[in-house]
Write a structure and sequence with these properties.
Elements lengths: L5 H40 L3 H40 L1 H17 L3 E7 L9 H12 L7 E8 L1 H12 L6 E9 L6 E8 L1
Helix pairs in contact: 3-5
């Protein structure tokens, strides 16, 4: 029985290799194919290097914009504190009223009277009322309404209002009243401004 022929010895030597190949094709091959499909899918889903560079560049731009917005927010907060100081400091309010009277008279309006309005004057727009509430919440005083009565032409009034807009002091127009006599070219102007 020990005498196996040459062909039988080759078959006996190949039998373990054939069993290993059969196990590989029936058991290991589907698992390896599944892993290969997962790897291929991951490669397809992975962005190409160009897309990654574009995303990194847009992320860098977004960070720069966020830094710029942070600096802008800081400067706006400083400006808001400065405006609060303008509206609460009596000396700055007096400076604002003098500057406003000067701007009106330098553009052809004859200032008849200027003073702090009694009982606050007109209430202004809803946005102005909201601004006043916000200022009071932040610890500032409500702005005082300054009233100015003047006479002049329509053109001088427009020039004076443009000049008021360009003043370095903080002033916010609230209301304007115009009266005209039929026989006179001049208008009677009453202007309410927050200072």
């Amino acid at each position: 029985m020990n005498a196996l022929g040459r062909r039988d010895r080759y078959l006996l030597a190949l039998l373990p290799a054939l069993v290993a190949a059969a196990l590989h094709f029936w058991w290991l091959a589907p698992e390896l194919d599944a892993r290969a499909e997962k790897a291929e899918l991951a490669l397809r889903r992975a962005p190409d290097p160009g897309t990654i560079a574009v995303r990194e560049a847009s992320l860098a731009r977004a960070r720069l914009e966020a830094d710029g917005l942070g600096r802008r927010e800081s400067s706006l907060a400083a400006r808001r504190r400065e405006q609060l100081a303008d509206w609460t400091d009596p000396a700055r309010r007096a400076e604002a009223s003098v500057a406003l009277s000067g701007a009106l008279s330098s553009h052809g309006l004859r200032v008849i009277r200027s003073e702090i309005a009694e009982r606050g004057g007109p209430v202004g727009s809803p946005a102005q009322r909201e601004l006043a509430r916000g200022l009071q919440k932040e610890g500032g005083a409500a702005p005082e309404v300054w009233t100015c009565e003047a006479r002049g032409t329509w053109e001088s009034l427009l020039e004076a209002l443009d000049a008021v807009d360009g003043l370095s002091v903080f002033a916010l127009p609230v209301a304007l009243s115009l009266t005209s006599d039929l026989g006179r070219p001049e208008l009677e102007v009453k202007l309410w401004i927050w200072i």
